[in-house]
Design a protein that fits this description.
One of its GO terms (biological process) is intracellular manganese ion homeostasis. GO terms for molecular function: manganese ion transmembrane transporter activity. The structure is a single chain. This protein has eight helices and no strands. It has 236 residues and is mainly alpha-helical. It has one domain. The termini are far apart. The structure holds zinc ion (ZN). Zinc ion (ZN) binds next to helix 3, helix 4 and helix 5.
Length: 236
């Protein structure tokens, strides 16, 4: 194979699996933080378990559906532009194969192959699957692995829901006096885990990611709790 290893890190099977995993962890993280902020805020204003359950469940559904819809729209748009680019490429290959062979040769030469080797590689890649070669080398996409927008939407829906369930259960299940400490402790613990894994999956230093992630979650809960307490105290 003549594909440069640089592309493998992004487009390879392992790379795309890690990207999916990282997206799932970040989706769960969103679910944890936004739902925790919501239920802790409501807990600042009321002791009512049914109010907490209603608010948490509404937050879970609203958040997971908005994440799924956003993901669907963004992946569909990306897919549309990738398919349009592939269509242009297909037409060019049909109408001007010589110019396309020259183009592929030059792109490969730019990546460090000698003229002769680049020409030889371009000819072999063109003979095997010209469109695929141009898609990968020129456009940086794999025509067999375009992301399905429904899969992407489902993945965000599920990961957000899994994350959101944690603060929802933590605020609803314990007796009244234990709700806040249990929720805060389990949320901060989970944020250590998601911060650490997303950093590891993205090959970044975990410690700073964990600190930022936990600080972000603590801030979200602190702000909504203060707001909820204020509203509860004034009886709005
Ligand atoms: Zn081309």
């Amino acid at each position: 194979m003549t594909e440069p290893t640089h592309d493998e890190a992004h487009g390879g099977a392992l790379g795309s699996r890690l990207n999916w995993l990282r997206a799932a962890v970040l989706g769960a993280n969103d679910g944890i933080v936004s739902t925790a902020g919501l239920v802790v805020g409501v807990a600042g204003a009321t002791q009512s378990r049914s109010a907490l359950l209603t608010a948490g469940l509404a937050g879970l559904l609203a958040g997971s559906m908005s994440m799924a819809a956003g993901e669907y729209v963004s992946v569909s748009t990306q897919r549309d532009s990738e398919m349009a680019a592939l269509a242009v490429e297909r037409r060019e290959l049909r109408e001007q194969p010589e110019a396309e062979l020259l183009e592929l040769t030059e792109l490969l030469a730019e990546r460090g192959l000698s003229r002769e080797v680049a020409r030889e590689a371009a000819e072999q890649l063109t003979a095997r699957d010209a469109l695929r070669a141009h898609a990968r080398v020129e456009l940086g996409i794999d025509p067999d692995e375009l992301t399905n927008p429904w899969n992407a939407a489902w993945a965000s829906f599920l990961s957000f829901t899994v994350g959101a369930l944690l603060p929802l259960l933590a605020i609803v299940l314990p007796p009244a006096g234990w709700r806040l400490p249990v929720t805060v402790a389990s949320v901060l613990g989970a944020l250590v885990l998601t911060g650490w894994s997303s950093a590891r999956l993205g090959a970044a230093a975990p410690r700073r990611a964990v600190v930022r992630n936990v600080a972000g979650g603590a801030l979200a809960m602190g702000v909504t709790y203060a707001a909820g307490t204020l509203l509860g105290a004034t009886g709005v």
